[in-house]
Automatic annotation (TrEMBL):
This is K Homology domain-containing protein. SUPFAM superfamilies: Eukaryotic type KH-domain (KH-domain type I). Residues 929-956, 1224-1252 form a coiled coil. The lineage of its organism: Eukaryota, Fungi, Dikarya, Ascomycota, Saccharomycotina. The gene is TBLA0D05350. Keywords: Coiled coil, Repeat, RNA-binding. Pfam families: KH_1. It comes from Henningerozyma blattae (strain ATCC 34711 / CBS 6284 / DSM 70876 / NBRC 10599 / NRRL Y-10934 / UCD 77-7) (Yeast).
Length: 1323
């Protein structure tokens, strides 16, 4: 055995190496250089430092670190000493670990695992384990380079040598290797016998042509295996050996959740192939792990579990990780300076004006020479980093570090300056001189001005602002005092008017040689101000000019009166703002207009201004005299009608809530969102309108308002985004190769434009030879919705050149629906997946697939697989079910036949009607069973068993049709009673079939057991005998009293029929007949007549009156029951609705929508605890009242003797004072007089309802205070209702509008009731 201290590894390529063992005395002294001379060697404590320096400038030059991995009891010196004495060491003691820089880490478990091992080394095995020894060998005369760490004192660096190396010839390498491994006793399978072991070894040696030796360690029971042969054969035989002889083991590791689909593969092909290849079990969890989100992957993680032999599961793991690495090899990061950073929660928006973003992006782009790029999108203010994941992460880290460093240098400083003098700050000049941003206050209560910029420049900018404002005078003109001084709303409109048409004041200032400047408050101040100020500024020397300008402004304002404007509020700014501008701008010579939405968020107001003077520089002298008031009014109305074409769209406006996680909203729809721009473009292209409110009504919701087409497109887009929220979705599409130059553009200009517009990256392979017949597959990476939009764009651009083909396939029509899937689900999935168009042509049994060649082939393959499956499962057989057993086979509600369908996965359909004389005469009904052959046979056996097991008989009874209804009874009650008494159950095949109404068949079929049939026959014959003795008698009852014997939901009629065993035949509502027939036994008819007379006696015609109330007034007239109580207790009148009861109940409930969000928002913004709003009543019920029939109020006089009532509840006395005291005089009144009074009161109430066109809303921050409005026992609220005659609704706690009281009536009544309620709330 020869001692050695140095190992030379010659790398033939990135992963292949040849190992040479070198004696110390063969190393030239000049090469013994200390390891610290190598710049790329990080750890100088290594035993060996080797480098291939044959080409110093070659990027592929590598430095190698080789370090012996000694056990705790072994040192370097002891190994060297032992090697001199010929001692061997096991792999675990002396095996080198090799790491190659700038390439994947290599960690070999044994010498044999090296890709190439010099044949000068060999393996030696003994009972103690696997050893490796080194023979004396002849060292190559010329080595590329070898550096020793022994000569530590040699200071000469490697660059000082002038050393040339001749090319070394490669040694011969043996293809046969030897591999040894040990299997512990506890890892053996439990049933391992010598016979089984021998059989396995013999089988493997024969199968792979390898030599396998085995021995057992006596003390431990562990088994050593030595395999010799070709490397590939040895590795596979080792795996199968471990699989047969060792217990299965399990490992678990995590993978990115979104890579599951790639691991599973199409229809599970990929995961199944890995499982079969290594004969292992693979379990992928279907849900991500909690708290496993990785921001660099932009994904959660899930567990992957492998079960099998140790060798197979490691190989399978490598295959799975290879798929994972392929899926996540690229990364994409977006750093938007308009949003808070998700990495470190820094807000970089404040530093945006102070940094050169393009320069930063260019520096980062040049920083790394690998496959990651960085550029800045100036439109979206966003850094985009994409490419190799490792390099992209590094660039992102450096960018965050750069931005964080810059943000530290930027500060904000606030100083107090009165609002009046803030106009003196020259913001533009300060920004130009110092690069400082100045932000004025947005509230009259806040006088702070914010200076933002670099620390050293902020103070200088503040000092400059103070110095530059010296010597200036500010005069304030309060416009709110104009036109009577009580119309702040109008004067604020004037300020917005002057802000839009700023040329008016600029011309005025120019007329005074620009010695005076006129300033208007910012828009937010105007909206929340209690006055309307205009500021006039001049130097102290020109203070006289201020007075003249002030007079000019007053003159201008006096020319525009409130009668010269028209307010329009019914056009949503966010939806139609652009349309309004486009329409009114075309008519700008006749009218001026201001859209407050241009200045104030969520404001729909449009103000039309009559042209009382010229607001532009054009034709300055066109105006002479102001038009008359009538001319102005006519002009305003005419111009407002220009917006009428928008009315159909306005009526089409709908609202919908879409649930979307708050984080996804912030990520995708932040400031400058590309996806939102694409959505708006898509909606506009289809002539739709859309408004999107994020985080509304809650943070995880989006409110969509728009036309039908706008909502449809928005919902589709948001669904895509919800399903695919990642910005790393990939989609492959194919385009003709000859259009690649057009797609790329000059120096990639078109690709850059596509990236900016759609925020996606397009990966286009290099095309050397353009072949028009061969399409190119490009990969688009980005947000799923954005990908769809860019694909839509590309399809439109290249469709005329692309290689579009159409594939046709003959498919039987009966299979079309199978291929389409439920609600076209299968077709939609294929079209979406492969970007193709699939059509089903029934007339010629064709299915066509149109698209690019690649996509069509993929779709064709999947469609063919689906078709083959359907054909295999579309076998048909016809079976005949006896007519009498059809109902039994079907079962109650289809229970039995549906159970067979589910159990045997078949379809069972009747080929003809199951009822009628034709099938009854034929005796059977044809059914068809569809499915696979095996399933059809099993289902047929089940049907046959049901038929064969039935020993039922059937019997026909000829019964006169006039008795059929009596045998059935109301809701089948009598028929069920017959079956129950006979011991039958229709659901178990025992039934009585009575011909349907309208049939000419008199025969009743009784089917079931013999006992059931006989018993049911007796029951039916007995009942018919009784019916034959029945008679029918007609009685006359006034039409208006028919409802009394019908009752609510027919309950009175049902009670009479059941109690006396009779049948009542009452004319329909539309019939004019007053005859009611009673059928039954004579004695039962008499009893029924007495009962009816008793009911009618309680309701005499002398005590009733009918009043017709329009349906739309039912709620207001009834006052939710209060008006009915008033009639009852004040006038002894009961109100009944007869047959209109249900409709009366329906329309007595609230049928309108309270604008709770609007009222609540206004209440909260007012900073008051209680607000009272009065406005025109708007019916939001969407009910067509013209088509609703009126409701009949039947007033019934029913006097009460209050003297027999004892009022223990004083609150009830307060509620109805007429009930207390000597009020029996009311009872003594004639019934006609009472009815007349009640009728007049009701008619007056109806007339009042017609004028009740106002609604009041009282919002209270604390709804618990509403108990004060209700009062004890409702006394207070009923008093308010009685005095004001209004409809008042106190909300329930469960209602959305639980903090809003609703009032309806005339304007005067609403205000009176509202004031009374406010008084109660204050008390």
């Amino acid at each position: 055995m020869t001692n050695f201290n140095y190992i030379y590894v010659y790398w033939t390529n990135r992963i292949t190496a040849e190992l040479y063992l070198v004696m110390p005395d063969t190393i030239p002294p000049q090469l013994r250089t200390p390891s610290n001379k190598f710049e790329n060697v990080k750890d100088i404590g290594l035993d060996f430092v080797l480098s291939d320096l044959s080409d110093d400038d070659n990027e592929n030059s590598k430095s190698i670190e080789i370090q012996r991995d000694y056990n705790s009891e072994t040192s370097s010196s002891s190994i060297n000493e032992s090697l001199k004495n010929g001692k061997s060491f096991t792999n675990e003691e002396i095996m080198p670990k090799i790491r190659l820089e700038n390439s994947p880490d290599l960690n070999f478990k044994s010498i044999a695992a090296l890709p190439h091992l010099s044949n000068r080394c060999y393996l030696d095995n003994n009972e103690e384990g696997t050893n490796w020894k080194v023979q004396n060998m002849e060292v190559p005369k010329n080595l590329p380079c070898l550096i020793s760490t022994n000569a530590i004192n040699d200071d000469k660096g490697i660059k000082d040598f002038n050393f040339k190396i001749d090319k070394v010839s490669k040694p011969m390498i043996s293809k046969v290797i030897q591999l040894s491994f040990k299997v512990k006793k506890e890892d053996h399978v439990s049933n391992l016998t010598k016979t089984k072991l021998d059989n396995v070894l013999v089988s493997l040696m024969k199968q792979f042509n390898v030599k396998i030796e085995s021995t057992v360690f006596k003390e431990s029971g562990d088994r050593l295996f030595i395999l010799s042969g070709l490397k590939e054969k040895i590795l596979e035989s080792k795996r199968l050996l471990l699989k047969n002889l060792t217990k299965p083991v399990s490992i678990s590791f995590t993978i990115p959740f979104k890579t599951r689909s790639a691991i599973i593969g199409l229809n599970g092909n990929t995961i199944e192939s890995i499982s079969k290849k290594y004969s292992i079990k693979i379990n992928l969890e279907s849900k991500p792990l909690e708290n496993s989100f990785d921001e660099y992957l932009n994904d959660n993680k899930c567990n992957c579990n492998l079960i099998g032999d140790s060798e197979s599961i490691q190989l399978a793991k490598l295959d799975i990780l290879k798929i994972v690495n392929e899926q996540i090899k690229d990364a994409r990061f977006r750093v938007c300076l308009l949003e808070a950073s998700t990495t470190n929660n820094n807000d970089y928006s404040k530093i945006l004006p102070f940094i050169n973003c393009n320069k930063i992006a260019n520096n980062l782009d040049r920083l790394n020479k690998s496959n990651a790029r960085c550029f800045f999108d100036d439109r979206l203010k966003t850094f985009n980093i994409f490419g190799n994941r490792k390099d992209a992460i590094e660039i992102n880290r450096k960018l965050q570090q750069t931005l964080k460093t810059r943000s530290v240098l930027i500060i904000e400083k606030k100083i107090k300056i009165p609002i009046k003098f803030q106009v003196l700050i020259n913001i533009e000049e300060i920004n130009k001189l110092f690069g400082i941003m100045v932000n004025l206050s947005n509230s009259w209560n806040d006088e702070s001005v914010t200076f933002v910029g670099e620390i050293i420049k902020v103070e200088r900018a503040i000092q400059f602002a103070r110095e530059s404002s010296k010597g200036l005078i500010v005069d304030t003109l309060d416009v709110s005092k104009s036109h009577g001084g009580n119309n702040l709303k109008f004067t604020n409109w004037l300020l917005f008017y002057f802000k839009k048409y700023k040329d008016i004041f600029e011309r005025l200032s120019h007329d005074y040689n620009d010695l005076v400047t006129i300033y208007l408050p910012n828009s937010k101040l105007i909206n929340c101000a209690s006055n309307s100020n205009i500021y006039i500024v001049a130097k102290e020397d020109n203070k006289d000019q201020i007075k003249h300008v002030r007079k000019e402004i007053i003159n201008l304002i006096n020319q525009i009166s409130p009668e010269d404007v028209l307010e329009i509020t019914n056009i949503d700014y966010s939806l139609f703002g652009f349309n309004v501008k486009s329409i009114l701008n075309k008519n700008s010579k006749k009218i001026d207009f201001v859209q407050l939405g241009d200045f104030i968020d969520d404001n729909n107001t449009i103000i039309l201004f009559a042209k009382v003077f010229n607001s532009s520089n054009d034709n300055k002298n066109d105006f002479d005299f102001k038009p008359s008031d009538q001319e102005i009014k006519t002009s305003l109305l005419e111009n407002s009608r220009l917006l009428d074409p928008l009315i159909p769209k306005i009526k089409d406006i709908k609202q919908q809530i879409f649930e979307l996680n708050s984080n996804i909203q912030d990520e995708i729809f932040g400031k400058g969102s590309v996806s939102l721009n694409l959505l708006n473009e898509e909606v506009s292209a289809d002539n739709g309108n859309l408004s999107v409110k994020f985080h509304s009504p809650d943070k995880n919701s989006i409110t969509l308002i728009g036309t039908s087409i706008g909502l449809k497109l928005a919902l589709r887009a948001l669904t895509y985004i919800k399903e695919e929220p990642s910005r790393y979705n990939k989609k492959q599409i194919t385009i003709p190769s000859h259009v690649i130059p057009r797609l790329v553009g000059n120096k990639g200009s078109h690709l850059s434009e596509l990236h900016k517009k759609f925020d996606v990256s397009l990966d286009i392979p290099q095309v050397k030879n353009i072949n028009q017949s061969k399409p190119i597959e490009i990969t688009i990476t980005g947000l799923g919705y954005n990908i769809r939009r860019v694909i839509h764009y590309l399809n439109k651009e290249v469709d005329t050149w692309a290689d579009i083909i159409t594939f046709e396939k003959q498919v039987p029509v009966e299979l079309h629906q199978k291929l389409l899937g439920p609600q076209n689900e299968f077709r939609e999935r294929l079209q979406k997946k492969y970007n193709v168009k699939i059509s089903f042509l029934k007339e010629n049994e064709l299915v066509t697939i149109r698209g690019s060649t690649t996509d069509v082939k993929k779709a064709q393959k999947e469609l063919n697989n689906l078709l083959d499956f359907e054909i295999q499962n579309n076998e048909k057989i016809k079976v005949q079910i006896p007519f009498k057993l059809v109902s039994k086979i079907i079962g109650k509600g289809g229970e039995i036949i549906n159970g067979i369908r589910i159990d045997y996965n078949v379809e069972i359909n009747s080929l003809e009607t199951t009822k009628g004389k034709k099938v009854e005469k034929k005796g059977y009904v044809d059914f068809e069973i569809i499915g696979s052959k095996n399933n059809i046979q099993e289902a047929k056996k089940k049907l046959d068993s049901i038929i064969n097991e039935s020993e039922n008989i059937s019997k026909e009874l000829d019964v006169d049709r006039k008795y059929h209804n009596q045998l059935i009874g109301i809701n089948g009650s009598i028929l069920k009673d017959i079956i129950t008494k006979s011991g039958g159950d229709p659901s178990k095949g025992r039934s009585i079939i009575i011909p349907p109404k309208g049939s000419n068949n008199n025969k009743i079929i009784i089917a079931g057991t013999k006992e059931f049939v006989e018993s049911a026959t007796i029951e039916i014959q007995t009942l018919i005998s009784e019916l034959e003795n029945q008679t029918t008698e007609n009685i006359t009852i006034p039409k208006e009293k028919h409802s009394l014997i019908i009752g609510t939901s027919g309950i009175v009629r049902q009670e009479i029929e059941e109690e006396f065993s009779v049948i009542l035949n009452i004319p329909s509502k539309n019939s004019k007949s007053t005859h009611v027939s009673i059928s039954g036994l004579p004695e039962n008819i008499e009893k029924a007549k007495l009962k009816i007379n008793d009911i009618l006696a309680e309701f005499t015609t002398t005590n009733t009156k009918e009043v017709i109330v329009p349906a739309q007034y039912q709620e207001f007239v009834s006052q939710h029951g209060f008006f009915l109580q008033t009639l009852r207790f004040n006038h002894n009148i009961n109100v009944k609705y007869g047959s209109d009861s249900r409709r009366a109940m329906k329309f007595s409930k609230p049928s309108f929508n309270i604008p709770d969000k609007k009222i609540r928002t206004e209440g909260l913004s007012s900073k008051k605890n209680i607000t009272f709003t009065v406005e025109k009543f708007r019916d939001g019920s969407n009910i067509n009242w013209k088509k609703q029939k009126p409701i009949s109020w039947i007033l019934e006089y029913d006097p009460l003797d209050f003297n027999v009532l004892e009022f223990e509840d004083k609150e009830l006395e307060q509620l109805f004072p007429e009930m207390n005291g000597n009020n029996n005089e009311n009872i003594k009144n004639n019934a006609n007089d009472a009815l007349e009074v009640a009728q007049n009161i009701l008619q007056n109430r109806i007339e009042l309802a017609k004028r009740a066109n106002y609604a009041g809303y009282i919002w209270c921050s604390n709804p618990k205070r509403f108990t004060k409005v209700i009062g004890s026992g409702g006394s207070r609220i009923n008093e308010i209702r009685r005095k004001t005659e209004t409809l008042i609704i106190i909300p329930r706690k469960t209602k959305n509008e639980k903090d809003i009281i609703f009032i309806r009536g005339t304007e005067e009544q609403v205000r009176e009731a509202g004031n009374m309620i406010l008084e109660s709330l204050k008390n």
